[in-house]
Specification:
Helix content is 62%, strand content 5%. The protein has 21 helices and 7 strands. Strand 1 and strand 2 form a beta hairpin. Helix 7 runs parallel beside helix 9, helix 13 runs antiparallel to helix 14 and helix 17 runs parallel beside helix 18.
């Protein structure tokens, strides 16, 4: 019987991983370029390769003024793959995030099994994590090249820390040191998530003398392993570089409220079952997952939803195991004492039908979302690609561009991020990378970007006023036209600029107009 349970469990995890891979790779294959962001990381990986694997002081992205302070592990991995396997950076940024995010599914199962001591709960949690849009939307984009690795290392780190506090074995100190170090060298914000989770785990098992010794040894080991990186950054740019990088976070992300709100139609399947699971956890006097969500909610973490999905998936597993299954079996003989194994649960037809419907609807949502609701899981257009190629070939290297894309949110603007990376020209309003600059530069750059994009429905006078008020000079104006979507400048705006004597049209296709500035502002 045990072998049968093991086989069913292994098959279930493999099937969940397969479905999760389909959900993650499907949007990727719809495009021939990385989704949304990733231009900054593309430049950083290229910088590492061009510096022959020595750590650059500054990144070449957008004018060589941004400190190379971002954790460099992934960029070295990309540079090694490019050098020895000859796989280009754009292909890596396109496919690796989806692959690494897919590998997080079986690791989530292992974490759930360790925390809940239930294979059945953990199987359901793995299926939820495989198909919840929040578990992968931010991870499969181009910028997910670091976020996906960060989440994978985070899950493994939490698993190791949990076992370290539970079993008090030396081997888990070593694994925690290694995994947490890899995480810190990959993604700074997600490292904070693991830090506060480790604190919560310590409280869960009691911060006794042994636990404090193990935790202290782990922290010391992490500091030693990561010191070559952070000592180098501090010596080059001062500690303020790391403090500045925290500008991208907020003060609260309200994960309990937003956990499953976004992500397309039928997302209520997850929120209802997860809420059932939360209630069941509380009724069983298990408060760790609730405390975990509350703690995440007060963290200024940029990728909050991707992290909320971890305890969220575990709550889904509890909801299925403690609420849905007993409810389906309530009219059957002996249902109050049903076999809690995955084999025992799945022997009932009603359970199999219900779970199949949940999985089927969730998979349909994942496949339909890139076409219907997740419009931001797209790259820049072929028109922008043609325009950027023209810029690279026909403008001076020191040219400065004002990019008016009409996008309201800078983090959903692939043109503004990829332009400096692909053309090696300066985009005066691009926000990416400015978080590493001092004196609240990031906040000012956000305002500069927002003001420029607000001119998408006005004439050139609006842009001149924007440039004057922000003391900005630029040589070219790059205008994305509306092509049936929400972003871009209206045709009337483009026509007004084409008629303005202060501008000269130098490039145009169906999606982009580029003007040279006759009288530079």
């Amino acid at each position: 019987m045990k072998k049968a349970q093991d086989y069913v469990t292994i098959f279930s995890i493999c099937f969940a991983t397969f479905l999760g891979g389909v959900a993650r790779f499907y949007p990727v294959f719809l495009s021939n370029f990385p989704l949304n962001d990733g231009g900054l990381f593309y430049s950083m990986a290229r910088d590492v390769l061009e510096h022959n694997f020595s750590l650059p002081a500054f990144t070449s992205y957008n004018g060589n003024v941004i400190p190379f302070g971002y954790p460099p592990l992934v960029f070295y991995v990309m540079a090694i793959i490019q050098r020895f396997l000859h796989i280009g950076f754009t292909d890596q940024i396109r496919f690796l995030p989806a692959l690494i995010s897919t590998l997080s599914i079986p690791t989530l199962y292992l974490l759930s099994k360790s925390m809940t001591d239930s294979k059945a709960k953990s199987v359901f949690a793995a299926f939820a994590y495989a198909l919840m849009p929040q578990s992968y939307q931010w991870l499969i984009m181009g910028g997910g090249i670091t976020r996906s690795f960060g989440v994978l290392f985070a899950i493994l780190s939490i698993l190791s820390i949990w076992e370290m506090f539970r079993q008090h074995r030396f081997r888990y100190i070593l694994s925690s040191i290694i995994l947490c170090s890899l995480l810190i060298l990959t993604h700074p914000a997600i490292a904070w998530f693991v830090f506060v989770t480790a604190f919560l785990i310590g409280l869960r098992y009691g911060l006794n003398k042994t636990g404090i010794i193990y935790a202290s040894a782990t922290v010391a080991g992490i500091l030693v392993i990561t010191s070559p990186w952070w000592v180098t950054i501090i010596s080059r740019h001062t500690l303020g570089t790391f403090l500045s990088a925290g500008q991208t976070g907020g003060f609260i992300n309200l994960s309990i409220i937003t956990l499953f709100i976004a992500g397309g139609p039928f997302a209520n399947i997850f929120i209802v079952v997860a809420l059932f699971g939360l209630i069941a956890e509380i009724m069983h006097r298990r408060f760790f997952l609730l405390a975990w969500l509350i703690l995440i909610s007060i963290l200024p973490i940029w990728v909050g939803q991707a992290l909320d999905a971890i305890p969220g998936a575990l709550l889904f597993g509890s909801g299925v195991y403690w609420v849905i299954v007993p409810g389906l079996l309530s009219n059957k003989v002996g249902s109050n004492e049903y076999d809690g194994s995955i084999v025992g649960i799945l022997q009932y037809r009603s359970v199999k039908i219900t779970f199949s419907i949940i999985i089927g609807v969730s998979l349909f949502t994942a496949m339909a979302a890139p076409l219907l609701t997740m419009t931001n899981l797209k790259p820049y257009s072929q028109y922008d690609q043609e325009a950027m190629n023209w810029v690279t070939q026909n403008t001076p290297v020191n040219s400065q561009f004002a990019l008016m894309t009409g996008e309201k949110d800078w983090f959903w603007d692939p043109v503004s991020e990829w332009f400096p990376a692909l053309t090696r020209r300066i985009s005066v309003a691009t926000v990416q990378g400015s978080e590493w600059l001092p004196d609240q530069t990031f906040r000012r750059q956000e305002n500069i970007y927002d003001r420029l994009q607000s001119c998408a429905d006005h004439d050139y006078a609006c842009i001149l006023d924007w440039a004057k008020s922000n003391t900005i000079s630029f040589s070219y104006l790059y205008v994305t036209k509306k092509n049936g979507g929400d972003r871009g400048a209206a045709a009337a705006t483009v026509q007004l600029m084409a008629e303005d004597i202060q501008l000269q049209l130098v490039f145009e296709n169906a999606g982009v107009s580029i003007f040279t500035v006759v009288d530079k502002p």
